[in-house]
Design goal:
Blueprint lengths: L1 H38 L2 E6 L2 E6 L3 H8 L1 H33 L6 H12 L2 H12 L5 H8 L13 H29 L3 H9 L4 H12 L1 H16 L3 H6 L11 H11 L3 H35 L1
Antiparallel strand pairs: 1-2
């Protein structure tokens, strides 16, 4: 009986201690989500007497299907996410393997690696705007100096090239953090597994395939999910480099939501786009939580 009362008091005390954090989270996170959901079913008009709200049913979501710009932005976002995540994981794995080698362990290499990640998003975008400049950009000067091209290229002037140049800049920005994440995973693989593999006659490639990759499975899954969420949210590079041009070829879902809401003042339609984006990221977050579950179970068993 005393034990039950003690547990009940502990439970109530826990609720009181966590209540402020729950209230703050509901205010900061839940309110914008609910407000965005409500706005997506409304038509908001800007008049001289202020804002007016009119129930619009599912018209904003129906517009998502009928308007080509949304379908094109959705396709570009999926392409951008898939290619960006694959490239980031590939290059981050190479960098992590190099840093895990005895020659790559001095702290200097990790400091240099962190520079792109430490830059603020806008500063990073401005840097790439200077690199890609068709008249005085360092990329054209370097390629002409190496004899690869004969004249300046307008990197952000054609749809396909501009889109992939933004993709390249985003990969450069994302690789350092994922590389450090994978490096932490590499250092958690027990060394006796490699010794056992060498005793069995495994060469370097076989050790990588049968020891390293299985040991990095959870880390890679987490990296893929996190990077997918960040790729879907890309905004600063598009805003600074192209503002969606040329011919809307660099418009992704996040930028389209912002443009419809704050530039075209179609708040309901912009909120509907934002909710679709939120749904995509929410599903990725569920995968992230599921990927973490085996670790928690293992920790409890230990």
């Amino acid at each position: 009986m005393q034990t039950n009362n003690y547990n009940r008091n502990r439970y109530r005390l826990g609720i009181w201690f966590t209540a402020p954090a729950v209230i703050v989270l509901l205010t900061v996170l839940a309110y914008p989500i609910v407000a965005s959901l409500v706005l997506s079913f409304l038509r908001v008009r800007f008049g001289g007497d202020g804002l007016s709200f009119e129930f619009n049913g599912i018209a904003n979501y129906a517009d998502l299907v009928t308007k080509p710009i949304f379908r094109e932005a959705l396709f570009r976002s999926i392409y951008f996410t898939v290619v960006e995540v694959a490239a980031v994981i590939f290059f981050a794995l190479i960098v992590a393997l190099m840093l895990n080698h005895p020659l790559g362990r001095p702290a200097f290499y990790r400091i240099v690696l962190l520079v792109p990640w430490a830059l603020s998003p806008v500063a990073n975008a401005v840097l790439w705007k200077w690199i890609y400049n068709a008249n005085y950009g360092i990329l054209n000067q370097a390629l002409i100096g190496l004899g690869i091209i004969q004249e300046n290229i307008i990197w952000l002037g054609t749809p396909w090239l501009a889109f992939n140049m933004i993709l390249l800049a985003d990969v450069w920005k994302a690789v350092p953090f994922i590389a450090l994440l994978i490096l932490a995973g590499l250092q958690n693989i027990p060394s006796y597994l490699y010794k056992a593999a060498r005793l069995d006659g495994a060469n370097a490639w076989q050790q990588f395939v049968h020891v390293t990759l299985p040991g990095l499975k959870t880390t890679i899954v987490i990296s893929v999910v996190l990077q997918s969420i960040w790729a879907l949210k890309v905004f600063d590079l598009i805003y600074v480099l192209t503002k969606g041009s040329p011919a809307d070829s660099t418009v992704l879902l996040n930028y389209l939501s912002w443009r419809e809401t704050f530039s075209n003042l179609d708040v309901g339609y912009g909120a509907a786009i934002a909710n679709v984006l939120f749904l995509l990221m929410f599903m990725l977050a569920l995968v992230y939580i599921r990927a973490l579950r085996p670790r928690q179970t293992q920790a409890k068993a230990g």
